[in-house]
Design a protein that fits this description.
250 residues; mainly alpha; globular
């Protein structure tokens, strides 16, 4: 993998995450009662408790600062490590916040694999200090990310069929999730059925993105899917658009 592409991917991913999280605040979580704290994964082994307000405030600013420094490529490895640990803590929160976790879990894996990508050879402050240069880097972290993200699309399609069955294919489940102001545009059953079938087709055939001739066609379909989800279903698309950027690197 080209070292310049790796560096540009680092700038885009961590810069985008910084801009996404900059206006958001995690401090509100400190006001949750203990009954809302049921961490998944590590929570089985570590005694997670509701941290005080000050701890959340420091964690939030440390996390955002690390995102910015990782984007700029300053103390890159350390900055990315702080980002990974911060993302892990956020992703461990109560599983009842499924909409939040559905974004934070992919984000954690994105940051985790980016930690292993040697991407500070170009366009970084570290290069000015350590004079580090390279023409190519090992791209296995990006490839692993791609496989992980595509597996999520396929899993999503399987889950739709598993839990909604014919109801999803007929458009019944889709219509119930459309924002009220747009429901009048989706009253035709044939149109809704074609759209839901299109969603399933895009997700099931998303692995075709690994073929060079299909990469931009499938990528465009997935991008359109997320933009439509944001407009008509009010489902956040920002994290997923950042994830799709990994397919431009190889």
């Amino acid at each position: 993998m080209s070292a310049k592409k790796a560096s540009l991917l680092r700038i885009f991913i961590f810069g985008s995450l910084f801009l996404i999280h900059l206006p958001l605040s995690l401090v509100g979580y400190s006001k949750l009662g203990p009954e809302f704290w049921s961490p998944s994964g590590l929570g089985k082994y570590l005694p997670f408790i509701s941290p005080p307000f000050a701890a959340f405030s420091y964690l939030e600013w440390l996390w955002k600062a690390a995102l910015l420094l990782a984007c700029l490529g300053f103390c890159t490895k350390l900055s990315k490590l702080v980002v990974v640990l911060g993302s892990l803590i956020v992703a461990q929160y109560d599983q009842h916040f499924s909409a939040v976790l559905f974004n934070y879990i992919p984000e954690f894996f994105l940051c985790f694999y980016m930690f292993f990508l040697d991407d500070a050879s170009h366009f970084s402050l570290d290069r000015l200090v350590f004079k580090k240069t390279a023409s190519s880097v090992d791209g296995w972290p990006v490839r692993h990310l791609q496989v992980f993200f595509i597996s999520l699309y396929v899993f999503s399609a399987i889950q739709k069929i598993r839990f909604s069955g014919v109801g999803w294919l007929s458009g019944g489940s889709f219509q119930s999730t459309i924002r009220p102001e747009f429901r009048s545009y989706f009253e035709n059953a044939w149109v809704v059925s074609l759209l839901t079938l299109g969603v399933l087709t895009i997700e099931l055939f998303s692995p075709l993105i690994f073929f060079r001739k299909c990469k931009y066609f499938v990528g465009g379909g997935l991008l359109t899917l997320h933009v439509a989800n944001y407009i008509f279903l009010d489902i956040s698309a920002s994290i997923w658009m950042v994830c799709l950027a990994t397919f431009l690197a190889l």
